[in-house]
């Protein structure tokens, strides 16, 4: 019985530890960074099993708020090299291994 309770506690600690957003790289201004990060977390939680829908939601919202030509990639185990406008790139992790890259180019 004690092993089960201990196992659930460790699982809860693991989920809490890996459910916060971790910004790997950004050059966005602080206000834009916070707003984009919150949007990414909301989209990834809302569409937990469908990365394409989450990316579409982030892209459409960013296009409305900050002008057009935003691009979004969500997934695990990918690399990238992009050309972007200065102060318009965010690369973050959410939920442990789910990566989100948001950038603007015109």
Automatic annotation (TrEMBL):
GO CC terms: axoneme; dynein complex; microtubule
Provide this UniProt record's keywords sorted from A to Z: Cell projection, Cilium, Cytoplasm, Cytoskeleton, Dynein, Microtubule, Motor protein
Instruction: Give the main localization category.
Output: cytoplasm
- Any idea where this protein resides? Cytoplasm, Cytoskeleton, Cilium axoneme
* Gene Ontology biological process: microtubule-based process
Stretches of the chain forming a coiled coil according to its record: none
Presence of the UniProt keyword Ribosomal protein in the record: no
> What family does the entry list?
Belongs to the dynein light chain family.
| Name of the protein described by the UniProt record | Dynein light chain
